[in-house]
Amino acid sequence: MEKFAKLKELIAGVEADADKFYNAGNGAAGTRVRKAMQDLKTLAQEIRTEVTEKKNSDK
Length: 59
What we know:
Function: Might have a role analogous to that of eukaryotic histone proteins.
Pfam family, one: Hc1
InterPro entries: Hc1 (IPR010886)
Structural class: mainly alpha
Protein name: Histone H1
Shape: elongated
Number of helices: 2
Organism: Pedobacter cryoconitis
């Protein structure tokens, strides 16, 4: 559950940069959004692995 909370925090943290990129055309903000999306992808994969391991260990 700790990683899931971190995932939500990361999304909330990138929201301002996403707004700057999409609504103001700020290219640097777009770079920060891309990095955050990569971090989200990595964290999401870690959560998927953790869930699979927990699910399989309950059997």
